[in-house]
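Dear colleague,

Thank you for sharing your sequence with our group. We've completed the structure prediction you requested, and as agreed, I am returning the results in plain text so they can be pasted directly into your records. Please verify that the sequence below matches your submission; if there's any discrepancy, let me know and we will rerun it promptly.
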Amino acid sequence: MFFAGAIIARPIIRKGYPKWWKDAKTIDSGEFTTTPEQKEENKQNDIDARCVQKYGPGLAAFGTLLWAYGDLIPRMILRLFA
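Please find the predicted structure tokens below.
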């Protein structure tokens, strides 16, 4: 569950809460040309979006199932080989 929380909170951890909150509330039309800093920021924003929207919820669900049923796995293995 720790990893799921870390993945979901990646944008906040990376930018810090005040900057993340400001960026979340700001609508920017952009410029005609992109600078290397803007390209890197766009790349990091894409990674943030993937972490929050894809990997985080999947990892949270997997962690929940593992936490709930993790103790059954050794019991099943012992029954198979005992």
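Summary note from our side: The helical segments are 2-8, 10-15, 17-25, 36-69, 72-81.

Kind regards,
the structure core
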